[in-house]
Specification:
Low-confidence stretches: none
Mean pLDDT: 86
Order of helices and strands: HHHHHHEEEEEEHHHHH
Number of helices: 11
Number of strands: 6
Structural class: alpha+beta
Strand content: 15-25%
Shape: elongated
Number of domains: 2
Helix content: 55-70%
Length: 367
């Protein structure tokens, strides 16, 4: 800490306070605007469901506000850097700093200290906060906002382990109930057990599955044994959860890092075709906060030169580039989830592209 204090000067604290102050102020303003528009769009759903003000705040906005903060953070970070740096350049504050013997690389130090603070908060939020707040947000939306959206998945085939396969004709995510369930056990290429049930339902208290109207066929070479459970129920433990059959596309955002890692491990065995989705979510949590450094570099290099017209031109270019970053990010995501583009490259592609752009602009920036 003493080394840090010795290296950070008064002008550095000035830049850091400007950076973080502009970032927090702009982010708060954008969040308020988004909440107003979001409330006006979903007000009919809230009234139809007869939700109280506290329910809307605690069940929805407690989860959606952290989501919006994380989503807008790169955009606001970029705009904040460009706005206050262009204002400093317009007020001829940067020229005396560089003329006083401070190198441009040294001038960047407080910017990257601030970017590191934002990076740390975003990383901590991605790993420990957002999985829980997203669960609140997505559960609320799936129940009250997307209530008319399909909540069931049909014709489910899944491999639970090396010797166990299951099939369900239909699984409803709201009732956690499946119909026409079949489980097959194999030893090599030979079937040893076949279980058929008219209905299978998840018991969240016992954390097990309940079979209704079931029958079990045991095969031992040429000997077969039938066990009938017609009109009866049976509790059983299977290596699967209702989330494995979710019809919602936001389910992976709700998973903790441990749950996500376990899901990836199981997907290596099951091969249900969702590996890219899982890997993209994992890499995004760890790598997307790096945008704080890249966008800061571009913002400083772009706006540190004094131009005619004040802050308007740099700010306009910055907004255009920030939306370009978001568009590129979405394109890379779609190519990964819907195509064969590797998830790691899809997450890194916008950062690499804009990082190279930032390096080029840094070379052209006034020294």
């Amino acid at each position: 800490m003493s080394i840090f204090r010795n290296r950070i000067k008064i002008i550095d604290w000035y830049i850091i306070s400007k950076y973080l102050g502009t970032f927090i102020y702009t982010l708060t303003l954008f969040i308020i605007i988004i909440i107003i528009f979001d409330l006006s769009e979903k007000l009919d759903d809230f009234l139809t469901a007869k939700l109280s003000f506290w329910q809307v705040i605690s069940l929805y906005y407690a989860g959606s506000i952290p989501f919006y903060v994380n989503m807008l953070s790169p955009l606001i970070n970029f705009i904040a850097v460009i706005f206050f740096t262009a204002k400093m350049a317009d007020q001829t504050e940067i020229v005396p700093i560089l003329s006083g013997g401070v190198s441009f690389n040294r001038f960047l130090l407080p910017y990257f200290v601030s970017a590191f603070i934002i990076f740390s908060f975003n990383l901590a939020a991605n790993l420990y906060v957002l999985p829980h707040t997203n669960q609140l947000k997505n559960s609320f939306e799936n129940t009250y906002v997307k209530k008319n959206a399909p909540s069931s998945k049909n014709n489910i085939h899944m491999k639970l382990d090396k010797s166990t396969y299951i099939y369900m004709d239909n699984f409803d995510n709201r009732s956690k109930t499946g119909t026409r369930f079949t489980l097959d056990n194999f030893k090599g290429d030979v079937m040893t057990k076949k279980l058929v049930a008219e209905q299978i339902q998840w018991d969240s208290v016992k954390r097990s599955w309940k079979l209704t109207n079931y029958s079990v066929r045991l095969v031992d070479k040429l000997k077969e044994t039938m066990i009938s459970g017609s009109g009866m129920t049976k509790d059983t433990v299977l290596d699967m959860r209702p989330d494995d059959f979710s019809a919602y596309d936001n389910i992976y955002e709700n998973m903790s890092n441990k749950e996500l890692g376990e899901k990836i491990r199981k997907e290596n065995v099951r091969g249900t075709g969702i590996m890219n989705d899982l890997l993209f979510e994992r890499y995004k949590r760890w790598l997307s906060p790096l945008s704080a450094f890249v966008l800061t570099l571009i913002g400083v290099a772009l706006s540190s030169r004094k131009v005619r017209g004040g802050v308007g031109l740099p700010l306009g270019i910055g907004i255009l580039l920030s939306f370009g970053y978001i568009v590129l990010n979405q394109f890379a995501k779609m190519f990964s989830l819907k195509g064969d583009f590797p998830p790691l490259l899809a997450v890194l592609a916008p950062t690499i592209f804009f990082g190279l752009l930032g390096y080029y602009l840094l070379r052209k920036a006034p020294k």
